[in-house]
Amino acid sequence: MTPPPARGNNLDTVRQHNLSTVLGMVHRAGAASRSELTRSTGLNRSTIAALVGELVELGLVNESEPDANNRVGRPSPVVTASGRVCAIAINPEIDAVTVGVVGLDGTVHHRVRYPTESVPTVADAVAIGRSIIDGMRPDLDDRYRVVGIGAAIPGLVRVSDGVVRLAPHLDWRDEPFAELLAAATGLPVDAGNDANLGANAERLFGAGRGYADLVYLNGGASGIGAGVIVDGKPLTGRSGYAGELGHTLVNSTGIRCHCGAIGCLETEVSQSALLRVLDLPGADPDELDRALAGASADERVLAEVERQLGHLAVAVRNAANVFNPELIVLGGFLGALIAVAPGRLEMLVTEHGLGATAESLVIARAELGSRLLMIGAAELAFGSLLADPARIPFP
Ligand SMILES: [Zn+2]
C-alpha cells in the first residue's frame, strides 16, 4: 500500500486555502481588483499582494493596471483569470459528440460538433473525442496549458470514477467512460451528469449568478434533465443521481416513459411534440425560438404550447415545494417554450396558490445557450486546480 501524501504543515494548508479562495473568486468574477479581493476575503493588502503574485508566477492569473481615467482615488491593479489555462469539455449526445476548449476565464475558445449517423457507442465517443483533441493538439500545445477533460453525460454518472451507470438515450450501461477517455488521450478525465453541470454553470456564469438555491431544468432532444443547487452546492445524493425531475409524475393519465413509469415530465413535455406541430424535422433552441415566434397565431401550436406549459407548471410547483429555491432556470427548448408565452408559466404555477414557497420565486430562461455544457464540463475539470492552485496541475 502506498503511504498517503504528506499533509504539509498548517501554514501550507492556510496558504493553499487562501490561494484557492483568491483564484476561485477571480475565476468566477472574470476580473477583480486587488482591493475587491482584500475586501471580500478579509485578508490584509500585503497578503493579497503576495497571493496574487504567486498566482501570476504560476501562470494562473494576469495582473494589469486599471484605466486610471475611470477611477477616483488610487487605482488598484486588476486581476484576471488566465485564458491560456484551459480545460477540454466533451459532450456525447444521441446525434453528435461535441468537444470544446474552455479557458479559466470562462471563454469558450473552440467548439467542434461532430455529428454522428447513429447513436454513438462508448467506443465511438472515445474515438471521436480523441481524434478531435488530436486535431487540436498543435494549437493546444502552442497556446494553452490543458488541466484535463470534463465530460457532460446525458445520464446517471458515478462522479467518483466517471463510470456512466445508465445513459438511457445513448444506451450506455456501466461504461467506464472517464477511464477509457483518459487512456486514449493521456489526460485526466472527470465526468458528471449534463444537467447537474449545466445547473452549476448557470449558477456561476449565467442566469443563476448570485443565487445560492436554484433548480435548473434543461430540455434537450432526448429528454429533460435537472440539477439542483442547495446553499451554493450541487445536490448530488449518495452517488450523484439526485434531481431527476424529468422522471417525476406530472400526468397520471399520461403516456408510458422509457423509465417504466407513466406520465413523466419528459414524456409529457417534449421537443419532438413541439417540432411535430411546427412541422419541423429538427431545430436548435435558436431555430425553435424563431419557429415558435413565427407560429404565434397557429391554433395547433398554441394548444400544444399551452398543454406543455401546464405539465411543466406541475413539475415547477413540485420543485418549488420540495426545494424552496429562489430561482428556477429553464434551458434548451424549455427556454423557447416560456419565451413564446411570457408570464404564462408563472401564472400556471401560482394559480392554485403556492403560498410561502412561491414568495420571491423567480423563473428565468438560461443564459449560456450553446456554451452551457462546455462551461459546465470544464468547471468539473478545473475542480482540482481551483482547490489547490499550487499543485503541479499540468500533465
Ligand atoms: Zn420516466
Describe the structure.
It is a single chain. The strands form four sheets. Strands 6-5-4-7-11 form a five-stranded mixed β-sheet, with helices on both faces. A five-stranded mixed β-sheet has the order 14-13-12-15-16, with helices on both faces. Mean pLDDT is 89; it is low at 1-7. The protein has three domains: 10-81, Orthogonal Bundle (Arc Repressor Mutant, subunit A); 85-197 and 372-387, ATPase, nucleotide binding domain (Nucleotidyltransferase, domain 5, 2-Layer Sandwich), CATH 3.30.420.40; 207-367, ATPase, nucleotide binding domain (Nucleotidyltransferase, domain 5). The chain is globular, with a radius of gyration of 22 Å. It contains 13 helices and 16 strands. The protein starts with 9 loop residues before the first helix and ends in an 8-residue tail after the last helix. The protein has helices at residues 10-29, 34-41, 45-57, 122-143, 177-185, 194-205, 265-268, 271-278, 285-294, 299-323, 333-340, 344-350, 372-387; strands spanning 31-33, 61-64, 78-81, 85-92, 96-103, 108-115, 145-153, 156-158, 163-167, 172-175, 189-193, 214-220, 223-230, 233-234, 327-332, 362-365. The protein has 395 residues and is α/β, with parallel strands linked by helices. The longest helix has 25 residues, at 299-323. Zinc ion binds at residues 247, 257, 259, 261, 264. Residues 247, 257, 259, 261, 264 line the site of zinc ion.
